[in-house]
Request: fold
Amino acid sequence: MKASAFSTTSTSRSAGLRRGLRKWDLVALVINSVVGAGIFGLPAQVYALAGTYSLAAYIVSGVAIALIVLCFAEVGSRFGATGGPYLYARVAFGPLIGFQVGWLLWLARINGFASLINLLVAYLALFVPAVSVDAGRAVTIVSVVVLLAAVNIIGLRATATTTNVLTAGKLIPRI
Reply:
């Protein structure tokens, strides 16, 4: 392993990356990453399978996920450079494993986004039936992708604000 990868000084600042996210922006980002869109449809299915133990199942699952999140936070705190799981895998296990982790992470995110966009269209079709038709479905998917791309292009603050609003929109109905 290279010692420079474990540097506590931020090499990313010299590379031009901005540190524009505030603490609560990061909290919202992590919550939004951990709590999936299935949270809206899953409780009924969990209750059908687990009955009165469904709350305990959620608590046990939440604790397990919290442990995974803490592991990622611990490993992430050991690196000063950007790269996430790819960086850790490359430094710890070599370039081949880093390459594989990077591609698998990218493929998982692409598939996850495709699943989420399909779920969005399915939920939206309950309120707007025209969305479930081929042309309406395509227009909805393209519109959402273009809107999210535009938010990212506008800048970091717009992205953080959008993430905060979407996270609140995901959590408030659960309260």
In short: The chain has a mean pLDDT of 86.
